[in-house]
What we know:
single chain; 516 residues; alpha/beta; DNAb Helicase, Chain A; Rossmann fold; 2 domains; two-stranded antiparallel sheet; 21 helices; 11 strands; 45% helix; elongated; disordered N terminus
Amino acid sequence: MDDIRHILDKNIKPKKLISTNPAADYGKLPPQATDLEEAILGALMLEKDAFTAVSDLLKEEMFYKPNHQKVYRAINELNKEGEPIDILTVTNKLKSLGDLDLIGGPYFIAQLTSRVGSAANIEYHCRILQEKFIKRELIRISSEVTNQAFEESSDVFDVLDFAEQNLFDVSQGNLNRANTRMSDLLHEAIKNIEDRTSDEKHHGVPSGFHELDEVTGGWQQSNLIIIAARPGMGKTAFALALARNAAIDYKKPVAIFSLEMEAVELVNRMISMETGLDSDTLRKGNLKPDDWNQLHTNISLLSEAPIFINDTPGLSIMEFRSIARRLKQQNDVSLILIDYLQLMRGNGDNKGLREQEISMISRSLKAIAKELKIPIIALAQLSRKVEESADKRPLLAHLRESGAIEQDADMVCMLYRPEYYRITEDAQGNSLLGLAQLIIAKNRHGAIKDINLGFTPELTKFTNLDAAPTLSNYVRRYGADDSKDVGVELDKDVNPLPKTITVQSKMNKEDDDVPF
């Protein structure tokens, strides 16, 4: 006790305790503007067109005071019912909702209208209110993230997902794009048309497949393109061909999100495609001196290609969005490929309903493509129903798990290789060996068409049909000892591929599994 008196006598003040709670340090109320809330509600009741002008900016939870939320709820209900909005109708609606006495009766409503003279500045006031609400939401999310981070039992990736999802919801739910006048849009459209008349042939990201680029003009910005197929058709190989052609031939930065294969596996495939060394030789390391020379000679272009690969397994749509944003900002990527859509995770709110989760993912991919203004190509699986048809040709109805994929996509393409199903000739007797088709089943901005491509199985490589494999590829593939064992009839006018191929000795043997 004497020590305390001694301290007080000398006017020595105790040191200020340092709080670990930022809110306690600030000692402030959450961001709010209650005077503007009153002015906005009063303006909504004074002028009949005021609600129409700001309805897309306001939400009930943006009002800080509960009483103000109740008044806005009544105004919103009147608007939904097509009733006029004024002091009397709002009062009656609050009475019918049982909220009138809770907020202070008719006098409270009358006080709101006395706060404002007109609705001239209501839109500006609403934007301030929106900013205050966003700040409050950020504080709420930060507090919840802090609490979860202090919990020893919490998983750090769950906390990250929670933070990303909530921040995404805040940004998407409160940031509205302004309406644009037709005159401004016409100016932009005419400029785009003028640009297309320049010497540059394709104004999207070229695929490198001539017939496909004639239809699409290159992959267009903000488009979501789905490339679907059954396992074994070569979805990954086709995606790698698109990435290689865009990055090497046209110098377009490309990002690949591989949810199924490791990055090194993808690179091995690209080495096989680029060097002409079959994947089996590379996998086993059975390279001869000439093969090593061929390898080092042909990978120089690949080493300089602006290709970025992310092989994070089980990637969520929120993680994808964050990484895609960084890739766009830091590397200005022009094209994103995802292998494949059904391996992505949603936000975890669908409670095991996989179809709803896939729908959410496809909608989000389309939104991200629009936000970043780049094309996104997502690979997708087709259902087993494809196998039930006689010719095994895929249809839009075969898209697996969700019809929303078809709805959200700007273009849906499906890969089909008859040879995979041991279909070696068409009805006219033309050979289908080494032939692949990209079936454009939906095209929001162009034609529906079947694109013929060449496919080399040992390299898992797609090519333009005029660069399709020569006869020697078939001899090596099917095991004929030399060219005299193969009978060939060429159809030069229609198809550069052999019209018929007959292999004497080993034609009936079982092929190894065709690479995916």
